[in-house]
Amino acid sequence: MRLNHYYGGWKKGDIALIFKKGSKEDPGNYRPVSLTSVPGKIMEQILLEAMLEHVEDGGVTRDSQHGFTKGKSCLTNLVVFSDGVSMSVDKGRATDVICLVFCKVFDTIPCNILLSKLERDGSDGCGAVDTPEGLDAIQRDLDKLEKWACVNLMRFNKAKCRVLHLGRGNPQYQYRLGDEGMESSPAEKDLGVPVDEKRDMSRQCALAAQKANCVLGCITRSVASRLREGVLLLCSGETPLQCCVQLWGPQHRKDMELLERVQRRATKMIRGLEHLCCEDRLRELGLFILEKRRLRGDLIVAFQYLKGA
């Protein structure tokens, strides 16, 4: 740090390919992740903290920025988005959600342009789709974004850009991105959480239960110990049943029961508790049912929101 020098060896890393979705035969459906050395990661963290402090003090980012912002997360971003959509739909207004995806943004973005980008682009990003003026405003914003991408030597992955038409009486306007029309979709993922035109979270509940059962299956096949400390340690943290659950919490009894079955399976794996009923196992472990844990999480998030955390 004192020499203003970053050791070149720390920049070297192994590239791991992480499959995203779609066809596994298509190389474009894999995300390259660079696995660098531990000292390099520590140095990056030190630099990141200094840069974030500078950005925060200088007021560079807007209040709507949630990524890499202290006190904000994917959950806060999703809650703000869902709240705006819900208010619009509850008022009986047709609402369109446009999902834009850049093509390999981290690999293709010119660093010199990124570092010099300080001005806003002037795009509002929203409009009322139940009026011709609102539709035209959104289309103008899309045209601005397409022009902005071209000027900054970037491009959208138009095959993955979609439109969600929400609300009754939606005119389902045909938007275009550049010279190509945008396809409509009944459901899209937003920060890992599916959003569909009916705003029903049953699909997300099923996916969360499936992922959690896969984790339990890996524990069964790979971990010999069935002591409570080991199983609970592997089952704790940001599990699929807890990640952003304040947004997609189950709305139907069948979905609640689906998630509870996963917890019952997990607690039954612990040696010495197999013969007990679910309530006794939870009492022995000092745990609550998932419904109560979700309520506790809702209260914590509401408190943080009201306190401006």
Distance between the termini: 32 Å
Q: Low-confidence spans: pLDDT under 50, at least 5 residues?
A: 118-125
SS element count, helices: 11
Topology order in helix (H) and strand (E) letters: EEHHEHHHEEEEEEHHHHHH
What spatial order of strands do you see in the largest sheet? 3-4-7
Main pleated sheet:
3 strands, mixed
Instruction: Briefly note the structural class of the backbone.
Output: alpha+beta
Helix content: 40-55%
Query: Can you tell me the overall shape?
Result: globular
Strand content: 5-15%
Radius of gyration equals 23 Å
Total number of beta strands = 9
Mean pLDDT: 76
Task: Please characterize this protein's 3D structure.
This protein has 309 residues and is α+β, with helices and mostly antiparallel strands. Helices cover 46% and strands 12% of the residues. The protein has eleven helices and nine strands. The strands form four sheets. The protein has a three-stranded mixed sheet, with helices on one face. It has a two-stranded antiparallel sheet with strand order 1-2. It has a two-stranded antiparallel sheet with strand order 5-6. A hairpin with a 2-residue loop joins strand 5 (176-177) and strand 6 (180-181). Helix 6 (202-222) runs parallel beside helix 9 (253-268). The two termini are 32 Å apart. The model is unreliable at 118-125 (pLDDT under 50).
SSE map:
Elements: E1 13-19, E2 30-36, H1 38-58, H2 74-90, E3 95-99, H3 105-108, H4 111-116, H5 132-151, E4 162-166, E5 176-177, E6 180-181, E7 183-184, E8 187-190, E9 193-196, H6 202-222, H7 228-235, H8 245-248, H9 253-268, H10 278-285, H11 290-306
Helix pairs in contact: 6-9
